[in-house]
Specification:
Length: 87
């Protein structure tokens, strides 16, 4: 199974408001998912395995770095009002 299917599956869960990996698995045999994602969706066990593996501190550091650069470039402000984030 290709790694790229997992972010796609998680995003589809978000878009379709599916409450759990089990609910996603119940819909995985539908042909529309294969058409959109290019392959069959992963099962609930595979999704949970992948979801609990990332190092969250690395993700936080990366997001903080991006946000800091946006603040430095004043990309988070629109007409003097804060558009993204908070101070």
């Amino acid at each position: 199974m290709k790694t790229g299917i997992f972010p796609a599956a998680f995003f589809l869960m978000f878009l379709c408001r599916l409450p759990s990996f089990n609910e996603l698995e119940a819909h995985r045999r539908r042909p529309i998912w294969k058409r959109w994602c290019g392959q069959k969706l992963p099962c609930a066990d595979e999704c949970s395995y992948v979801a609990e593996r990332p190092n969250l501190q690395d993700l936080r550091d990366g997001l903080f770095s991006i946000y800091s650069k946006l603040q430095r470039n004043k990309a988070t402000q629109i007409s003097g009002r804060l558009a993204v984030g908070h101070h």
